[in-house]
């Protein structure tokens, strides 16, 4: 595969990574269970102890979607770029980072919005859900690990690529001279 072909396929895969990140962001915003603060009559807000445990939900769903999104990016990269050789793992990692950052950025936009503004505008008795935030940035690594696992396992478990025997290469070089 030539450099131009690999570059064009990588650009197409970059668009795919952004799309995977966008779909994952929609799912992340939909599936995350965000706890709510209740605005009291005197203006302060309270949250139930049981609801505090739901804060982890956003990180959990981001990581779960990272496994699925990373695998999708990894499979697509392996199918399109396997003939590139070892750089496919590096390219796949970069694509996974693009997908993960897209999901993070769009997910926070698709979420309920800035918490402080919504809390300030809330009336007494109103429930105000927290903002959709990724509080464990290490979850980005899940995307990369899942994506890179595909080409690494596929390359190590796939069939061996036949290489010409050294004597045959020397004979061809001598006959061309």
Give a structural overview.
The protein is mainly alpha-helical. The chain has one domain (about 5-175). It is about 65% helix and about 5% strand. It is built from seven helices and three strands; from the N terminus they run H-E-E-H-H-H-H-E-H-H. Helix 1 (about 5-30) packs antiparallel against helix 3 and helix 3 runs antiparallel to helix 4. The longest helix has 29 residues, at about 5-30. The two termini are about 25 Å apart. The relative contact order is 0.18.
Provide keyphrases for this structure:
177 residues, 3-stranded antiparallel β-sheet, single chain, mainly alpha
Low-confidence stretches: none
Helix and strand element order: HEEHHHHEHH
Total DSSP E strands? 3
Indicate the percent of residues in helices.
Answer: 55-70%
- What value does the average pLDDT take? 87
Largest sheet strand order: 2-1-3
| Largest sheet features | 3 strands, antiparallel
Q: How much of the residues is beta strand, in percent?
A: 5-15%
Structural class: mainly alpha
Principal-axis shape equals elongated
User: Count the helices. How many?
Assistant: 7
Domains, number? 1
Distance between the termini: 26 Å
Radius of gyration: 24 Å
């Amino acid at each position: 595969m030539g450099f131009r072909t690999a570059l064009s396929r990588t650009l197409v895969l970059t668009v795919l990574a952004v799309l995977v990140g966008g779909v994952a962001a929609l799912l992340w915003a939909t599936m995350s269970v965000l706890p709510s603060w209740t605005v009291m009559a005197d203006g302060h807000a309270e949250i139930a102890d049981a609801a505090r445990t739901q804060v982890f939900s956003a990180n959990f769903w981001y990581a779960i979607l990272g496994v699925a999104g990373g695998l999708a990016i990894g499979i697509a990269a392996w199918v399109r770029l396997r003939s590139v050789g070892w750089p496919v793992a590096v390219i796949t990692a970069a694509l996974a980072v693009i997908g993960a950052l897209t999901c993070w950025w769009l997910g926070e936009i698709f979420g309920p919005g800035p918490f402080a503004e919504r809390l300030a505008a809330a009336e007494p008795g109103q429930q105000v859900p927290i903002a959709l935030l990724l509080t464990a940035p290490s979850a980005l690594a899940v995307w990369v690990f899942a994506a890179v696992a595909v080409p690494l396992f596929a390359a190590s478990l796939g069939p061996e690529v036949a290489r010409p025997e050294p004597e045959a290469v020397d004979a061809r070089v001598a006959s061309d001279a």
